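Section 5: illustrative case.
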């Protein structure tokens, strides 16, 4: 025999729940009809509300269908041996003698308190005047006193209480989740976020750049010191760059034969050994075609020279070969990465005497110096030197050869670059450079510049120390790049670009010379010159 889901649910209700409901109903109506105290002598367990009148019933024992019960049950004398309205004998036990039933009981109030939610729910469900569908779906009003949690209702998915009352009563029990047949309105969803931008294609993996060496304040020793080797491993800034370079040159003069104890020093010995080995290797590669037994390093520093060292390779007290060596330090590996290979004063070689082009210093004095001084009330109180005196003094680094140069230097040093007066002065100087090159850049004497390149660069070798790689690199300017130079244009308003008109060899790159007109010692104060860089194109 096949049963529908609804039939199975009804059978389960009648088999498991109806006996308990019937016992509770008999107990409540009997007590109310008699208006007497509940005839109990001993405390009753809270989970078995019908103990005083009926015997415990096994939950699994089958029960025959119960006949309908009249809505009004007359008070049944408690002294009678049985209750006539209950035909089923197993549910009723013989009643005890009358005497104990008359004894008043103090704890009556809790037993006649409003029925539990479970009882209310089941009573509503068993009301046959309501259709079965409405009995299952209709909500039941919450009861103020909670005696028993409706675990059966949770299993059968009956809607016995509303959501709010469950939430209040079950606040202390997170494991209990009420199940209802109502559909609770969900909170409105938050506005969706705007769509993300299309992700950029992954960048190609780039090799990690070597970390920059730290910058430190540096005070060189008067004589060679074991700590001088650290100038090759820490970077200098604009203020101490000259001092660093002098110490580095002093180290290179002694690196081939360091003083006793330098290469075995516990802190700096390893770096002295590294520099000794690197320099020996670099020099041997320059003269592989000759034999020698001694290398002598002579200083050639100074503005009258255009290189730092003369390296003499000697065999049996005879100089077999001499090379000119220019030392550069930083993060470069070739000439193209160097900011400068040559510097030329702005009053020589390219302009001035013997040319139709006025010097930059003369042009600046006539057109911009008065404007520069007018920006600063302190400078305005100092008299100007004559033009010839200004052109003679402006190309050296002595600030005390005229009061104006000292005042301009004092007013420019240690000044914030964003200072309004500083900004105004720099703008005037920049304007003067652009105006001069626009008027005369294409007329510079490139023949003199070509001779200068040949004289200073033809036999020069560049020894470049890469601070991060801790290695010496070699480079030279090709001879063909120094001849038949022609003007190529002005870049950035401050740089003249020239290059050779000759077609380079197949394996030689074109070299472009860039002549940057700038002030070496404080902008607008001292030493205007052309800073020459060589870039392979």
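Designed sequence:
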């Amino acid at each position: 025999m096949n049963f529908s889901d609804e039939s199975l649910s009804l059978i389960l209700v009648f088999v498991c729940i109806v006996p308990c409901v019937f016992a509770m109903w008999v107990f409540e109506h009997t007590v109310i009809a008699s208006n007497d105290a509940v005839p109990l002598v001993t405390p009753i367990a809270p989970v078995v509300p019908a103990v005083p009148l009926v015997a415990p019933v096994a939950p699994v024992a089958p029960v025959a269908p119960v006949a309908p019960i009249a809505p009004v049950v007359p008070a049944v004398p408690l002294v009678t041996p049985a209750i006539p309205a209950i035909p089923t004998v197993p549910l009723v036990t013989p009643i005890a003698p009358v005497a104990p039933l008359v004894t008043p009981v103090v704890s009556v109030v809790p037993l006649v308190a409003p029925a539990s939610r479970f009882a209310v729910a089941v009573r509503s469900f068993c009301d046959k005047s309501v259709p079965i569908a409405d009995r299952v779906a209709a909500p039941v009003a919450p009861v103020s006193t909670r005696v028993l949690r409706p675990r059966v209702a949770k299993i059968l998915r009956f809607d016995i209480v509303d959501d709010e009352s469950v939430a209040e009563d079950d606040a202390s029990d997170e494991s209990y989740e009420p199940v209802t047949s109502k559909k609770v309105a969900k909170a409105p969803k938050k506005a969706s976020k705007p769509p993300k931008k299309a992700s950029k294609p992954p960048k190609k993996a780039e090799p990690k750049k070597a970390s920059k060496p730290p910058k430190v304040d540096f005070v060189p020793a008067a004589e060679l010191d074991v700590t001088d080797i650290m100038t090759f491993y820490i970077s200098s800034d604009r203020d101490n760059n000259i001092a660093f370079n002098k110490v580095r040159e002093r180290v290179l003069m002694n690196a081939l034969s360091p003083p006793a104890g330098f290469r075995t020093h516990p802190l700096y010995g390893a770096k002295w050994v590294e520099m000794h080995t690197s320099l020996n290797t670099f020099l041997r590669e320059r003269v592989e075609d000759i034999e020698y037994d001694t290398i002598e390093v002579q200083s050639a520093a100074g503005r009258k020279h255009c290189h730092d060292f003369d390296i003499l390779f000697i065999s049996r007290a005879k100089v077999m070969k001499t090379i000119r060596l220019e030392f550069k330090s930083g993060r470069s590996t070739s000439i193209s990465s160097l900011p400068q290979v040559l510097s030329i004063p702005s009053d020589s070689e390219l302009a001035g005497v013997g040319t139709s082009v006025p010097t930059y210093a003369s042009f600046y004095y006539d057109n911009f110096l008065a404007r520069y001084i007018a920006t600063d009330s302190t400078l305005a109180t100092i008299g100007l030197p004559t033009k010839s005196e200004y052109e003679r003094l402006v190309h050296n680094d002595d600030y005390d050869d005229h009061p104006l140069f000292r005042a301009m230097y004092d007013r420019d040093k240690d000044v914030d670059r964003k200072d309004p007066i500083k900004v105004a002065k720099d703008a005037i100087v920049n304007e003067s450079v652009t105006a001069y090159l626009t008027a005369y850049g294409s007329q510079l004497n490139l023949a003199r510049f070509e001779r200068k390149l040949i004289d200073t660069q033809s036999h020069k070798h560049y020894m470049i120390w890469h601070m991060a790689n801790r290695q010496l690199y070699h480079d030279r300017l090709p001879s063909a790049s120094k001849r038949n130079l022609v003007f190529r244009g002005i870049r950035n308003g401050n740089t003249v670009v020239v290059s050779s008109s000759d077609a380079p060899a197949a394996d030689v790159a074109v070299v472009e010379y860039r002549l940057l007109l700038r002030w070496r010692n404080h902008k607008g104060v001292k030493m205007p010159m052309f800073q020459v860089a060589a870039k392979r194109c």
